[in-house]
Request: fold
Amino acid sequence: IPELQEVKDEIIYVRQENAGLSAARNHGLELAHGQYIQFVDADDYLIPCAYNHCLDIVRRNQPEIVQFEFTRTASQKSNYQTDAITDGASYLSGHNLKASAWSYLFMRCLLGDLRFIPNMLHEDEAFTPVLFLKAKRFCHTHAQAYYYRSHGGRITTKRTPRHLVKRMNDVECIIMGLNQQSASMPSAQAAALQRRVAQLTMGYLYEVMVSTRSVSQLEHRVARLKKLGLFPLPN
Reply:
């Protein structure tokens, strides 16, 4: 690609056997040595003007995470309003999280041993809340810095019965895993993560109803949540 010739020495291209999105991201995390990390899915791209705004925030304020908005249109127009810097727990406590790992850039040192769960659908839901809770300096901007290309070939749009069952089982596993992690966190972080657990549980039960249209399936999954104290949902 001619446009990449000037920076070709700064690019590491990795070819590996397909082991899923989590394995690819984890491999990238192991190889990364820059100060910040940004994920971009293969069929999407970053919007230069808006993303430069995000980089300006990084240069000025050195936040550990900058989260931005996305767009499904090719328009370059954007709202550059930026919220005050806060910590990740406070943000999770007051906002409905957009968990997609491509919707923010973050300091590599924030990771620790956190990685994506292999062979898991909606793996971002297990990764992003925990990463956000690590951040002492979190910034959200309304700039639409990411172009999300909508089409039927994405993993999250498959609708076969087998795929739907795996989706529901994986989300249930994520909910239970986050709930377990919250038990060992300081009170403010635990409360923020429990709020996210409740949000995920609500979405999970809605998905069960819409996808299966089965009362017995809903009752079965509610019973499993009750055993862990995750149902009824909090007010």
Summary: Helices lie at 21-31, 48-61, 88-94, 124-134, 161-182, 187-212, 215-227.
